[in-house]
Write a structure and sequence with these properties.
Elements: E1 4-10, H1 43-51, E2 56-61, H2 67-79, E3 83-86, H3 98-103, E4 107-113, H4 118-126, E5 129-134, E6 145-148, H5 154-166, E7 172-177, H6 180-190, E8 204-208, H7 215-221, E9 224-227, E10 233-236, E11 248-250, H8 252-262, E12 268-270, H9 273-276, H10 282-290, E13 303-304, E14 308-311, H11 316-325, E15 332-336, E16 347-351, E17 366-370, E18 377-384, E19 387-394, H12 399-404, E20 411-414, H13 424-433, H14 440-454, E21 458-465, E22 472-479, H15 488-511
Parallel strand pairs: 1-2, 1-4, 2-3, 4-5, 5-6, 7-8, 7-9, 9-12, 13-22
Antiparallel strand pairs: 10-11, 14-17, 15-16, 15-17, 16-20, 18-19, 18-21, 21-22
Length: 512
Amino acid sequence: MGRSARVVLESSVLLAPYARIGGGGGGFTGEEDAAQVALRPGAEALLRRLRYSNLRVAICHPEGLPTNESGFLERTANMHCFGYMPLTSPSGSHLLNELMLEWSTTNSCFFVTSRVDEVLLSELQNNNWTVIAIDNEYITESSRVIHIGMLQELLITLATSIKREIGSSSTLLVGYVMKQSREDDFAKAIFRGAFPLYPSNNGLIFVPLSFELPLASQLQEVDLVLHKITDEIINIDPNPSISFPKGISFSTGMSEIIRFVDDRCDFCIIDPFKNIYPLLDRLQIQEILVRLEGLNTEGRPKIRAPFSLKAENFCVSELQKKLAEANLSFPLIVKPQVACGVADAHNMALIFKIEEFSNLTMPLPAILQEYIDHGSKIFKFYVIGDKIFHAIKNSMPNASHLKSSSGGKPLTFNSLKTLPIATKEQLLQNRVQDSKTLDIALVEGAAKLLKELLGLTIFGFDVVVQEASGEHVIVDLNYLPSFKEVPDNEAMLAFWDSIRQTYESRKGMIQT
C-alpha cells in the first residue's frame, strides 16, 4: 500500500488521573509518594485493538515523567509489543525524538495527545505529523490538527484519516460490531491481524463501531458493516408461534444499526439480518438440512440431517407415542429450540430411556435428536466466501460409554463449556474399531449448497460419520464461527477476500 502508518500515543492520553496515597498502595517504590497508576477508561481496549491493527505504534513520555508512571507505561508498551521512548531528543539537539523525525519522511504519522504545547505541536506539523487532540479545546485549530472529545473516537478517526491519505476509491472502510471476547478470538486465537486499521492486501480498513458514540455518524463513514448480530441479543420470547425476528430484543446499539440498514436499501452488511435469523432456530436449521438429501447418489455415503422431533413438553405418555411415530429410538440428545443468543441455548441433555424425561428440566420448546455413535470424532467445516476448510476434533464418546457413567439419570451438559469428551482409552478403542472415513468431496458439495440456501458469506457446520452406516450427519450450523482450527495465513486471506467479493457482488446487484 506504499507508505505505512505510525501512531505515537503521548502518555497523557493513556494514564488516568490519580490521587497520591501513602503507604505504598500502588506497589511502586522511590522518592515519590506511592501512587496508584492506572490506564484511563477505554485505554486497555484501545491498546488491544492497536496491537493487531497493522499500524506501527509507540508510546512516548515527556521529560520529567515520574518514575512510577514511566515504569508503568514501559511495562504496558512491552506487553502490547509497542515501542516506548522519550518524546524529545535524548541528545537535546532536537525538540522531537530523532526516530519521530525519521519516521515522518517515509510514513503517514499520527501523534495523539491531550496536552497543550504549542511549540511542540508546531514542530510536529512542520515535520508532516498529523496531531489528534483529545478533549482539549485549547490546542490551536489547524489543517493538521484533528480534535476529538473522547478516547473512544480515536480508532474511527485514525481509520478515516488513513483512508483519506491513501486517496484510493478502492479502499473500503469496514465497520464491525463484535463483542470484545469474540474479537479477541479472531485477532489472537485464529488469525492475528484480521482487523487491520491500515489496509489489508486487498484494501480493507477495519474499525470497531462503538456503542458509546453516536452511531449514525460512524455508519455514514463506513462502506459496509460486518456484524455478529447474535451476540447482541438481549432476550428471545420462547413463544413457539413467534417467527424471528419477532420476539427478539436486541441491544440498543444493534437496534439502531438495524433501523439504519432498513432505511437504506443500498447499504452493504455482511451478512443480511434476514439470512441469519433461521440459524437462531434449531427447527428451521433442521428444515434447511433436510434439503441436502438431494445430493445423495448411489455408491456414496449418504449425507443428511439428524432425525429429530419437536417437543412442546416432556410428558412421558405423549412423547412415547410421538417418538414411535417419528421412528426415533434412544439414546436421544435434547436441545433447546433456540440455537443461540440466550444463556441456556447450549444447555443439553442425553436421555437413555423414556422415564428420564419425567424429571428433566430443560428450556421448552425443545428438539429431540438421535444420538449418533461417531467414534468420538467431529469434523468442523468452515465456509469463508468461496473457500472451504475443515478440521478434526475429539468429540463425545459413543453412547455405551456415556450410559455407563450416567448413573441412570439424564446426562446434562453445556456444549460450549462442559461437553463430555472421550478419554484417551476410548479414542484408542475407536481407532481400532472405526473403518468409516470422511468423504470430503461430498461434504464440500453440501457446503456449496448450504451457502446458496443460506445466502451467507461466512458460516460453519459440524459433521459426524455414523459408525454403523458411514452416513454423514450435519449436527450443527452456525454463523460467523471463530475458525480456531484454520491455519492463520489461509483464514486471514480468505476472510478478507470474502468480504470484498461480497461487497462488490451486492453493490453490483444494487446498481443493476
